[in-house]
Amino acid sequence: MTETASRPTLEAVAARAGVSRATVSRVVNGSEGVREPLVERVRRAVEELGYVPNQAARSLVTRRHDAVAVVIAEPETRVFADPFFALQLRGISKELTAHDSQLVLLLTEGREDYARVGRYLAGGHVDGALVFSLHLDDPLPGLIRGAGVPTVFGGRPGWQDGTRSAEPATPTVYVDSDNRGGARDAVRHLVGLGRVRVAHIAGPLDQTSAVDRLDGFRDVMVDADPRLIAEGDFTPAGGERAMRELLDRCPDLDAVFAANDLAASGALRVLRERGRRVPEDVAVIGFDDMLPVAEQTDPPLTTVRQDIEEMGRLMARLLLRGLERRGREDAVEDIAGAPPSSVVLPTTLVRRASA
Amino acid sequence: MTETASRPTLEAVAARAGVSRATVSRVVNGSEGVREPLVERVRRAVEELGYVPNQAARSLVTRRHDAVAVVIAEPETRVFADPFFALQLRGISKELTAHDSQLVLLLTEGREDYARVGRYLAGGHVDGALVFSLHLDDPLPGLIRGAGVPTVFGGRPGWQDGTRSAEPATPTVYVDSDNRGGARDAVRHLVGLGRVRVAHIAGPLDQTSAVDRLDGFRDVMVDADPRLIAEGDFTPAGGERAMRELLDRCPDLDAVFAANDLAASGALRVLRERGRRVPEDVAVIGFDDMLPVAEQTDPPLTTVRQDIEEMGRLMARLLLRGLERRGREDAVEDIAGAPPSSVVLPTTLVRRASA
């Protein structure tokens, strides 16, 4: 173990300064009511001893930790395998760093660890939380509610549209992309190319982003043959499996809209394996514009671009603004301005060779 | 903001139970000396109100958070780009989860954020820290010392061999691979193949792992032409740059030992670009046996295997064992057993097609 047995204590500072423990505590926590000569003596003792105030104690007073937790509702293996999360974290990290707030990423092996995450969030270690990749029936929102930490979600949470009935005064705040609109654009583009048997590789349908993209697909393909829809899981392997199913069921399909680029990359591999030319025989569109994936597929992928890094940055910005507002509310009640509200970012179709 | 205005307080519990605040506090913190009927009343009130004790307050008493910080001395972009870190985190995550301890990954944009990391570590939010990828003159060890948290390092820290002179009683504990021995095996293998102009693409020489691998190279190539050594940075792009330098300086080289697989993958690309056949013209060996990288290079990579996930697991295990020991020392002084000490894991040469 690497540690100092000799980390200076509050008592040592009090002894050095010749004042009481309570006086040191008041000075360290910035309280009023200590005479200037005493303040000076305490400050000198703090400096001489290299005393670091115990922030667990101090944060009981100030209630600020300058730290924000990030919770991704996926096992850590998935967090590191899918570049989507790295991009979102990049935006979050930049924004938190600009405000000198520490990014605290809480990793788990799976759902059975969420109670522990809830305890950490309730433990007074962070000012707020950024939570993303929630699934239907996810225990996390309930645990976060119990922990009582201000939270901004990445992606519209599944429980309902916008607010939780129990607490109308504290609406759920989230940042999302226009998943449904983006999906519509993709499928309209395929139809515009003259494709008539358009298939969809959906994401996991316990996530709102996957449901919204499927809804966008159905908005355009109103009477879609249900055999033209297969559920994937946002991974390349899931895209391969779904593409095989679709080809087996509907060998005459002439287009595929995949719910994300990783699934599309798997679909492209299977199409090549089965001797289908892209885009001549089957046109393919993904979602995300995840680089370098979308540029390095063969052929390069036409896809729906969402600004993932910007989503992360916005989540952090909304949370910090909310925390600041709370601080101001404590001080002067009526200058706090409007509370942060949810943001849905637009998407754009990026044309490459696959459709 | 998503939060509960109505999180029940200690005061509310005291009022409901008809006891003092101090009594509630003693019961919640498991202190002795409260009469059983009162304990029962407090417990019932806690349950009825759904009171969650403030762990910041409680941890002042128990000094346990069931959480361990992981600090990687690299910007977050690098953490997510290099699969080495994901593997080490996988081992750490598995081990911590098995002990119901929360993995708290503290991400940064760079060195200028380390003071903030130090504040978080000092803030009483974690029981200990796992720190890896330290660089020479890294401010982190000093900040960690100041924070006073038990720490295990991944990779031998650079400041000296094993102990810090100021605190002989608390030796530095680290987990490392036999970098020098592994490098010797690789270079001996190249020499055994009859190669005489063996080059080395080093890692960043402000890290002990890179220095040790270079030393291993020199152990075998005692009179190596200094032009046969180029410094990389453990990335594919760095490997490409170094390989170009080496070919420009020594077009007659017939083998390359790269300090890691990612650098070797870059070197292979440049060799192909310059029309050198591997292994016929130039034999190539990497370090790590990072999968799938080492298997997917063209040709597949001969490399020195180190068990990265196991290193992570061991780091976590040593830290938890040390924390447990400290707990027991507080109770009974002489049953604590030997303190954890550093571990250096063996490496093995894995032969594929490149050498």
Automatic annotation (TrEMBL), chains A, B:
Residues 8-62 form the HTH lacI-type domain. SMART domains: HTH_LACI. This is Transcriptional regulator. PANTHER family: HTH-TYPE TRANSCRIPTIONAL REGULATOR GALS, LACI-RELATED TRANSCRIPTIONAL REPRESSOR. InterPro entries: HTH_LacI (IPR000843), LacI/GalR-like_sensor (IPR046335), Lambda_DNA-bd_dom_sf (IPR010982), Peripla_BP_I (IPR028082). It holds the Pfam family LacI. PROSITE patterns: HTH_LACI_2. Keywords: DNA-binding, Transcription, Transcription regulation.
